[in-house]
Amino acid sequence: MILAAVPVWMAEVVPPYLRGALVQLHAVILVVGYMCASWLGYGIFFWKDGGSATWRIPFAIQCFFPLCLLLGLYWCPESREYPLIDAFWPSGSISNTGIGSSLAYSQWKIR
Question: What letters, b where the CB count within 10 A reaches 16 and e where it falls short, cover 31-66?
Fold first, then answer.
């Protein structure tokens, strides 16, 4: 899900002169990460005397980078549309879930 969400979020938040570069950087880092994971898995596959380290090492490496992203989430700005939605719909006037709210929001956005 994050593969599709990050470029959309960057399109909303990033200034226009940086959008293309950051979306491309996201794609390149994704491919490099997949390549590193593949080579790590290939290398550990042939490690005969590794014991339980053959699954612990890849697991620890996979946990490190999402934890870095989670810590960096504090500094990420919110979408610019969130305050507009909150100001347009006072709490309790329209349900925030279901088809009706998304349809009303899309009609409001078209106007």
Answer: eeeeeeeeeeeeeeeeeeeeeeeeeeeeeeeeeeee
Q: Are residues 58 and 85 in the same domain?
A: no
Give the pLDDT of the chain (111 residues) as one tens digit per residue. 677 888 888 887 888 888 888 888 888 988 998 899 899 989 998 888 888 888 898 899 888 888 987 888 788 777 666 666 656 655 544 444 554 455 555 555 544
Residues 58 and 69 in one domain: yes
Three-class secondary structure of residue 9 per DSSP: helix
Report residue 107 as tokens.
């009609």
Residues 56 and 110 reside in one and the same domain = no
What is the residue range of 48's domain?
A: 2-79
How far is 44 from 47, CA to CA, in rounded Å?
5
pTM surpassing 0.70?
A: no
